[in-house]
Design goal:
By secondary structure, this protein is of the alpha+beta class. The protein has one domain (40-217). The protein is 25% helix and 20% strand. Strands 8-9-10 form a 3-stranded antiparallel sheet. Strands 1-2 form a two-stranded antiparallel ribbon. A hairpin with a 2-residue loop joins strand 1 (34-37) and strand 2 (40-43).
């Protein structure tokens, strides 16, 4: 075999193996991919899959007008830039989160609002839990990243959002995470963290918004 081809083959294999290890769609018991908090096991990274659990493709939607009119599942990268996806994962609308084909990998699911509440209660309540969940420093979070200790290892990141009209904002300042719990016919419960507070809040959001997803392991 040609020497250059052999070297490239080895490099490609190494990259593939490392990608499988780090890909949040393939979580293992490795501490690089999961974290246990209380009785719950969470992924350490935001979800970054482009297929449902049954193998069907989830469409990437880049166009703002098309995004605004969606009533089916879709994903995008922040600012439609795949580089953002390497760190922050994909942004999904709630139609993807709720699709019966399954957004989460086998053995995992999208947390309910009550499961988020359990997590936060285990960390001493909403006033302090955000800091315990946020990645430390200001490499990704904007100053001042108040209260961030990441003592849980959850490593929450400020992946921003895609607004229901298709525009992007808040990267570096805010991380917003879907739950699977509906508030009413058009709204769904979510959790948010900000760079200037160690609070983690909940609110209800339109299903058309694009937010990050963290998965929790099935019991």
């Amino acid at each position: 075999m040609n020497y250059k081809i052999l070297v490239l083959s080895i490099i490609s294999l190494s990259f593939f193996l490392n990608s499988c290890k780090d890909n949040p769609s393939n979580p293992t018991s490795n501490n690089d991919t999961i974290v246990t908090i209380g009785t719950q096991v969470w992924m350490k990274r935001n979800l970054d899959v482009d297929h449902y659990r049954n193998g069907d493709s989830i469409p990437e939607v880049r166009d703002a007008k098309q995004w605004a009119n969606l009533t089916t599942g879709a994903w995008c990268y922040y600012n439609n830039d795949f580089v953002n996806g390497i760190l922050y994962g994909k942004l999904y609308n709630w139609y993807a989160v709720n699709d019966p084909r399954g957004l989460a990998p086998p053995g995992w699911h999208i947390p309910s609002d009550s499961e988020w509440t359990t997590l936060i209660t285990n960390l001493g309540g909403a006033d302090f839990a955000g800091g315990k969940l946020k990645e430390t420093g200001t490499k990704h979070w904007q100053n001042p990243n108040t209260g961030a200790s990441n003592e849980t290892g959850f490593s929450a990141l400020p992946g921003g959002r895609r607004y229901l009209l298709g525009t992007f904002n808040y990267i570096g300042y805010c991380g917003i995470l879907w739950s699977s719990t509906v508030y009413d016919v058009s709204l769904v419960w979510c959790r948010y963290l900000y760079n200037d507070d160690d609070y983690i809040g909940n609110f209800f959001s339109s299903k058309e918004n694009g937010f990050s997803v963290r998965c929790i392991k099935n019991n």
